[in-house]
Each structure stands twice: as structure tokens, then as C-alpha cells.
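Researcher: Quick one. two chains, 527 residues in total.
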Amino acid sequence: MSEQPSLWWIDWRLSRGSLVREAIGRVLFFCLLGFALLSLVLSGGVSRLLADRYAITAVLRAGVPSAEAEGLARKVAALPPVRTAAYRDPEAAWKEFLRAYPGLDPLRGVGGNPLPGYIEIRFRSDRLNGADIDLVTSALRSVSLVEQVLAGGEGLPRLLRAGRLASWVCWGVFGAFLGGFFLVGRLQERARAGVLAGDITFLVERGVPAGRLAFLRAAGAAVSGFLLAAAGTAAGGGALFLTLRTFPFLDRVIGPPSDLLLPRTVAAAVLFSLGAALLSAGASLLGWRAARSGRK
Amino acid sequence: MIEGFRLGVFSRGTTLWDGLDFTFGDGAAWFVTGPPSSGKTLLLSILRGERRPDAGDVVVSGESLYRGNPALARAWRASCGHVPEQTVADARLTVGDLFRRSALAGGGVRESERKDRTDWLLEMVGLQGALEWRIQELSISERGRACLAAELLRGPKVLFCDALVAGAGVPFWEMLWGLFRALAREGATVVLAERRIPERWALAAGDPEPVGPFRVYRLPPPEEGVRGEPG
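Model:
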């Protein structure tokens, strides 16, 4: 490493103590934000919860052979929006019926099993939308083996709209916290620029361009912001992993722990860190400007 | 050479001074005296390129500080050292911080060099072992000397000192006298602004040049004989 002193991030060189305190606070905050971000990315807001609860039921005609029904289920499962498509034969359907409505066994005695077989189709959480549901239902309706497609009817659009709204609210709350970080960061940067005003004046009086100082401070803030956000997100991801391992029922709302290592999850974490770097640089520049204009 | 041409300052609703000409040759120590509120600090800030005069111009090595290229003015400021009249500013810092900051401004002082020279400079100004002392705990004399040592770290070509001699106190006049003349011998220019010059320094410097409310003395270089022993 060069021994040459440089003006790179003079805050670290001149105000190390306060910077360390701020860094600790920021990494803890990023840890919480990272936990929330990864939870949101994995869950898609409330999409995974909805996708877990929502299913299309394709009721088959009476007398459809099991082999044909299973073949149809496999074809449906191959459709891009579909996560699972499981065939239930009439016997399984009857058992489920009895579990839901105990005491109705006598119904069978009259004319045999009154229930047909059916295929239960569940969607991928990221493909649970009106267009993809229409795609699957229209594909099913064109199949002669299918008697009826139960897809939620008129309530479905309301359900999807409510799901979208809930997701937006989740992301909005996350964005508000990120905005809060920016505002607090700006205040911290302003306070530090105020504390360093004497040093900055000293350097400017000795021929160091003020613009260069501001740029180098912002660049330093960006690099530290990226590293702190990356560290915080990694810690938050670790905490989320442990939480999902400890409470498996959360899989249905957030997702499986293995999804944390998916490329899109990692990409989201990197993008978040880059965003934190930009916000840190912006906060540094605005804080600098406020401190300098307040000084004049 | 630093030249001030027809310098004028308008301050507090009145003309403080106008039409003053100064010439400070290279490789010499200059002593500017003037009564309180005569604008000595202002004159130094104008000569350093910090405060544009309301009239006239400052020319350094043939280049105008205020009407020429701003990059040249910045380069000039980078080559200057400045020991301000001691105030409460920088009270939160330690003596070591002053050196660290000075090295940052210099940009060319290596870390190892800084550490070596810091000890040597502190010892020279009578502050050995003061590296961790806080500025707010120092006397006016110690602050001034610490500041001077920190400025010398960068090896400035021109050194401006505001009320340093008076602040340092009589016991350090001999050290300062020797230091300024040694700097001048090495080619640096030293400009000191004080209310009054120590009597023996005045005796050694000879007759001053009157410029407006100021008196400008040129301290004799070491090779010249002096008429009195300062200190």
C-alpha cells in the first residue's frame, strides 16, 4: 500500500471516531433492511402467501381413466405459470370430502361415489396474475376431459388487486425506511461536515479545491455505503436463513431458505447495496452543501 | 517575489487603506507592523490569495493572483504556509491532528516522513512529546508554536505568520529569530504581521519602510552582520 497520504475520504482520516460510531449504526440498520428486503424478494410481498392458498380446480368428467387424467395433469404442470398440478382420483376426492364434512358417509350408499376426479393446479408465486390464470383456465377448458374449471370466479380480480395493493404497501414501507436512512444519513453527513468545517477551510485555504474535497468525500461515502449495505444485507440474509430454518411454517409465506442463494436474490442484494451507495453519496453531497451554505 | 500594487480595502463602511504598494522579495524574512485594527490580518489574507482586495492587485512571480488563472492562485495557496492568530478554532484537535491535516494539505508528505519530521519539528519549537496533547489544553504560545511546526511539515515556500512572535512570548523569540532567518537562507519567504517588532529585531533590521499604517522591516539574512543580538 502506498504511504502517500491522499485526500481520499478525509472524514476517515480526520474524524475516525464518529465515523466508526455511524458505521456501526448503519450496518445494524442495513441488517434490518436487508432482512426485510430479502423477505420481500422471496415472498414477493404477499404473492407467495396467495399462491399457497390459491388453486384452480379442474373437475374431470365422470369415468375418465386415471392414466389419461395423470397425463393431463403432467401436461398442465408443464405450463410456465404452474407450480404443481396434482390429480386426485374420485376415491381421494371422496376422502377429502369426508374430512371436510364428516358424517356424510350415507351419501355414498345411495348410488356409489358421487364425486368425480379432479386436478388441483397451483401457481408459481411470481406468475399469480390475471393473464396467467386466464391462460391456464382457457387451456383447461379446451380439453374434452374437463367438465368444469373452478378458478375463483368474480372474486378473483378483487383478490389479485388486494394482493397487489398489499405488496405495494410492503414495498412502500420498505421504501419509507430507505428514505428515512437517506434523511438521517444526510443529517449525519451535514453534522460531520460541520465538525470538519475547520479542517475543510484549512485545506481549501491551502489550495485544495473544495469541489474535489466534496467529490472525494462523496466517493468515500459511496464505497463505505456499499460495503456497509453488503455486510448488513449478508447479516440480514443469515438471520433470515436461521429464522426460516427454525420456523418452517414461514416457508409458505416467505419461501424456502434455499431460495436465498438464487441468482435473483443475490442480484437484489447487490442492487440494494448499489442503491445504498448512491444514497450515501447523495447524502454526503447534500450534507456538504448544507454545511457549507450554513457556514457562509 | 510577492508584489502588492495600489492595494485598497473598504471595510466597515470606510476605506481602511488605499493605494498601498508592497514588495516582498524571495528568500527573506519580512516583518510588517501596524497598530491594532489597521488590517494586518486582512493584508496577509490578501497576500495569500484568500481575500480579493477592493482595489489593486497582488502579483506573484509575474502572475496576478486575482485576475489570472484560478489554478495558479490555487497552486500559490498550496505553496504557502499560514500560522493564524490563535483563536479557539481547532480546539477539539490534538497536536498530532494538526500535523496529519497539514500532511493532507501537502499531499506529498509520506507517512513515515511525517512521523520522523513531526518529532523533530516539535522538539525544535520546544514542544517535544506534545503529539497527543489537545489544542484546547495548550497556552496561546504553545498553540502558535504547534501550528508553526505543523505548517513547516509541508516545507512551504512562503510562510505567513499572524501575531506569532507576540503570542509565542519572549523566551521563544531567539528560537523564532533563528528559524526565520534559516528559512530565508534556504530560499523561503517569511512574512510576519505583528503589532510591534521586538526591539532588538528592529535594531538588527534597520530602518523600516513606511507603507500606509504599516512599517515593513526586512530581517537581515544570517550572512549579513547584525547590529544587535536579538532575543
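Chain A has a mean pLDDT of 86.
Researcher: Thanks, that's what I needed.
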